[in-house]
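thread from #wetlab-drylab

HS: before we spend reagent money on co-crystallization trials with 1HE, can we at least see a predicted complex? here's what I'd submit
DV: go for it
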Amino acid sequence: MTHQDLQLDIRGDVAVVRLTRPHKRNALSDGLVLAIRDTFQSLPANVRAAVIDGEGDHFCAGLDLSELKERDAGAGMHHSRMWHAALEEVQYGPVPVVAALHGAVVGGGLELAASCHIRVADETTFYALPEGSRGIFVGGGGAVRIPRLIGVARMTDMMLTGRVYNAEDGEKAGFAQYLVPKGTATEKAIALAERIAQNAPLTNYALMHALPRIAEQPSDQGFLTEALMAAIAQSAPEAKERVRAFLEGKAAKVAKS
Ligand code: 1HE
C-alpha cells in the first residue's frame, strides 16, 4: 500500500506519516484520504505511536476542491462517510497519533488534525474553516470533533464569519496542546510520540478508546466504564511491574518541567 502523496517512515517504534503534496498545499484528494485510511489500518505491529505532518509550507489545505464535482445527495453522503471511515482509523486505530502542524490547517486539514490525539503547532500555524464561504459544510467529522476542542460557539463563528485563528490564539482556544517555534513541530511531535510509545499499551488503549467514550456517557455509566477500564489496566503484569519499580525507588518521580 503506497501512494504518491503519502510517505510512511518507521523510526523505531514511531511511525511518521507525511502528506507529500506540497505543490497543492497537501490538499486531500479522495485517493489521499483512502491512503491515510490504509496506512493507519496497516501500521507495522511494532509501532507504538505515530506522528502525522505535511511537507512544504502548510500542513493541509483541506478537501481537494478540484474534485468537488456535482454530486447528488447520496454521493455526497457517501463521500463524507468515506472521510469518516478514514479519520476513524486515525482516532481509533492501533496507536496514539500526534499531529505536527504548521502553516494552513484549514477545512478538512483541521478535521484531520482534530482526529489526532495531540496537536503540536508551530508559530506559523493558522486555523480556518473556509467551508462557510465556499457554500459547503464540514464533512470529515469536523462537526463532531472540532466543537470538542474549541466549543460550538467558536466553530460557529469561524464558519459564519470566516474567522482565522493564528497559532497563539489557536492554542489558547484549544486547537493545539503545544505551541513551538517555527520549524520545530515535527521534532517536538516525534519526541512526544517516543514518550507515548513507552507507556503500557493498555494505558494508551484506555486513553484512545475508553476516555472519549466515557466523556460522552452519562456520569453513572461513565463511572462504571472507568472502573472496568481501571481494573483491566491495573491487572496487566506490566502495570504491576511499573508500580513495583516506583515503590522500590527504581522509577522516575513526577518532576516539574
Ligand atoms: C488547492 C487547494 C485545495 C490549494 N484544493 N487545490 N480548502 C480551502 O478552501 C483552502 C484553499 N486554499 C487556500 O486558501 C490556499 O491555497 C492556502 C492558504 C492553503 C495556501 O495559499 P498559497 O498562496 O500558499 O497557495 P495557493 O497559490 O493558493 O495554492 C497553490 C496550489 O495549490 C494552487 O494550484 P496551482 O495548480 O494553481 O498551482 C491551488 O489551486 C492549489 N490548492 N488549496 C485544491 N483545497 C471533508 S469536507 C472538507 C471540506 C473542506 O476542506 S473545504 C475547504 C477547502
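DV: The chain has a mean pLDDT of 95.
HS: ok that's useful, forwarding to the group
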